[in-house]
Known about the structure:
Keywords: Isomerase. There is one protein chain. This protein is mostly beta strands and 188 residues long. It contains 2 helices and 15 strands. The strands form 4 sheets. A 6-stranded antiparallel β-sheet has the order 1-2-11-7-13-5, with no helix packed on it. It has a 5-stranded antiparallel β-sheet with strand order 10-8-12-6-14, with no helix packed on it. Strand 3 and strand 4 form a beta hairpin. It is globular. The site of dTDP-4-keto-6-deoxyglucose (T46) has 11 residues, from strand 5, strand 6 and strand 12.
Amino acid sequence: MKITDTAIPAVKLITPPRIADDRGFFCESWNRARLAEAGIAVDFVQDNHSLSHRTGTVRGLHYQAPPHAQGKLVRCGHGRLFDVAVDIRKGSPTYGQWAGAELSFENGRQMWIPAGFLHGFMTLEPDTEIIYKCTDYYAPDCDGAVRWDSCGIDWPLEGIAPVLSEKDERAPRLDDFDSPFSYAGAAA
Ligand SMILES: Cc1cn([C@H]2C[C@H](O)[C@@H](COP(=O)(O)OP(=O)(O)O[C@H]3O[C@H](C)C(=O)[C@H](O)[C@H]3O)O2)c(=O)[nH]c1=O
């Protein structure tokens, strides 16, 4: 399993091996022990899967506040997307900085995003599916959002008008946002 760094040390890119044969491929898309060997020793309790029909769909930037903060292991089940994590841990040397990567069914790449980060993505093809494991359950009362275009992220829009939910349209800007995370307390 290949692990590579991103612009933010705590955010990792993980590419599990695919065993190809004439039928296609087999891949252990998640293996707790292998991830722990790579320094990401976490337990997941919920698996999410969403489908976005249109290219340029932006979902995010979202977080769940403590005590239900979520770490996420994200992959693309179909199509292509640009996945982004933004550090919102107060006191972090990379506070407000972002790390992004293209995840696709083709490249099989995954992104590990610890608790204490915003998560969002933009689809690069129609009918793109994202699948991600979470380290805590959905807790609507702890759900929060920051505007997708308020963190200096270099989204690959290329003139596409983004498709947003109403919730994401009205999210606060990063500089108007008081993060519930602190650098010390938001590990993994
Ligand atoms: C997140 C979530 C949502 N829902 C329900 C709530 C709504 O009725 C419906 C759509 O929720 P929402 O519009 O928040 O879905 P996304 O815009 O894809 O939000 C997600 O997008 C970004 C990329 C994330 O990382 C988060 O997991 C999550 O915030 O699913 C559930 O039932 N369980 C859940 O865990």
